[in-house]
Amino acid sequence: MGSAGDGTVNEPVRRTVLGGEELASERVQRFLGSVTGALIGDALGHRVVSLPWPEIRERFGESGVTSLGPHSGGERMSDGLVVLALSLDGRIRLDRALLRAADATAELRATYELWTSGAAQAPHRFGWLGLHLPQRIAGSRAVEAVAAGISGRHTTLPELLYTAIPAGLWSPSSRDVIAHVEQVCGVLGMSGESVAAVQALAVVLQQTVMTKNYVRGFGQVIEVEADRFGPRRDRVLHLLRTAESSARPDITPEQLEALGDGFDPASALAIAACAVQSAGTDFDEAVRIAVNHSGNSVVTGALAGAIMGASFDGIEIIPSHWAEGLSKSAKLVFRLAQDVPEQLKDFPRDDDEWKQRYPPMSGSSSKPVRPTTAEKPLDAHERFLGSMIGGAVGDALGFAVEFHDIEMIRRHHGPDGVTGPVLRDGVAQISDDTQMMLFTLEGLIRAHVARRMQPTDNDPVPEVQHAYQRWFHTQGQDWARAGGPYAQHLQRPDGWLITHPQLFATRAPGNTCMSALAHFARTGVSATPHNRINDSKGCGGVMRAAPVAVWSNDPAEVFYAAVGTAALTHSHPSGYLSAGVLAVIVHQLIREVPLRESVRLARELLTRWREHEEQLRVLDKAVALAERGPVPPEEIARELGGGWVGEEALAIGLYAVLATEDLRGALLLSVNHSGDSDSTGIVCGNIGGALHGTRAVPAEWQETLELRGLVETVAKDALAEFSPGPPTDPGWAQRYPAW
């Protein structure tokens, strides 16, 4: 750890869900909505927690309990509120420990120990909560459970699920959240299925706060990260899938009870998930469904309230009448929650009043920490991941303005044009470009599996053709027709990638790609540079070419393979030679070759091919234009075109990286023009991501990217397959079957 020379200490930046500037205020509202929803659901559930459903119906009518009654005169906290209050306080103190270079896990443990030991132990360390909390938590079952957990005894209190609400803010990476929750659960003495349930809930809340879409949250758990939860995850995931399939607007308490009684974490989470998905966008209905059953209505209500409160516009969607029925203890917890965003922003408070409010629990550095970007050097893995994720981000940025000229872009987005992701349904949607990039990469993985089985099989193009026919099937085409000769061997398309329903979205697929794949389905004959089926030089060949960089250590082989995959749909030389150039540039950047040297080698390989002159001319113009730095969109159009054809899309994407110093600036330059913005964006992201790595892709852009987890997973699978020791287990062969 080095000194900055002014009394501060350099420390790597910690990224939280509430950091950044562009989306932080919206996320704060959703986080506060999550806390408020939990408080409401907890209170509503307490009205019926000991009652079977028939008695609830008899007392409150066919809809069950629907409103908060007058709370009791006492201000003792419920077990759930105790856990939530201690966890919110611990989250603030944990972050303060990180920023002063102390042991964050030790700080969290010390915070829990403080609240379970009594005020006489260290009253000065309670901070502002010392005036309010001790008398409210004395004798609580939750305090006893936390005390048992931190002393090493196993705990199963279902209210410990509430720890997921602040834990989900740990990082924009769901995998980091999963790892963090495992540590938190270890501190609290949780194990097995309980850990998996808290991890799953934390990821649901993290994704929902980031994207305002609880569907994205459940999808991240069930589809993307399913194999990363604790070892006792099977029942948790099974119940969540059952909850999803059972959800319906008219669901009955009896149907809800088929998921369990809510007295264990897995069934409590499943009931809440089913209630939320049954309610759609209606907060009142979500908590009503969640509490009206013969089980642990308190926890199921709180979890449903937390998830729905984190959705859409957060606290703004919660009807104001609920606040009137909340107790003083609940309002105290909400006041504590308001301090969490203040601490988790990029530059949190550290004044004397804040230090007294949240005093340190464990040892610390005597110097304040200054966040810095000091990080380990880039390696080939991060560069390749950066290329794939950067490409998808560029595609999403551009897809929002594809088919718009620059005047329309400025009219809709301001004088600077697009300055960040444009969200639709809570995410930055990808186009067919990223879809085909993923299927290209899947085809390459399967080709390499085949090459391991038969070393003389060194041509990836047949497997990539097969992958493209699977993509063609996702675009509304029946497999029997889309699969062509492959459908004669398979009743349904095989492999893991095709099982993701999100890939079946139709996102403006190119006519040339669709017609070329339909031609193969009819004839069974693949197009090649010598067997041409059209005269198209559209950008559909280059937009999906970057993954070919992993195919071989030999750049000439990479060029050849990229040409072959692009020629499957685009028969004009500029349509497939542009793909070869892009793949080689990415190939070289991954190997730490400087950008201009990478372009020089790709240029030299290009000149070995017939009919390269047009592609070469536009490539050279892009390099020359970059010497002038960023130029207005109108000049990009005059010099390089609109990006609708292969040589132009490559030129604009490459120019944007050459003309700028950082990936953010390059991506914005590449999409703000009158042309095919998603394709120029994906090319720019492929090149810039390989140059700068994943760390250069703005975190807040990654967080909102549709299918971000899927892109990362397939990219990491490619790195595993092309490593010196690729996977050999049967599961891998089912995931990426070879022919």
UniProtKB/TrEMBL annotation:
Bias class Basic and acidic residues marks the residues at 346-356
Nuclease found in the keyword field: no
The protein's matches in Pfam families, at most eight in alphabetical order, are given as: ADP_ribosyl_GH
Q: What UniProt keywords apply to this chain's record, in alphabetical order?
A: Hydrolase, Magnesium, Metal-binding
> Which branch of life, at top level?
Bacteria
Positions of Mg(2+) binding: S431, D432, D433, D676, D678, S679
Q: What is this protein called?
A: ADP-ribosylglycohydrolase family protein
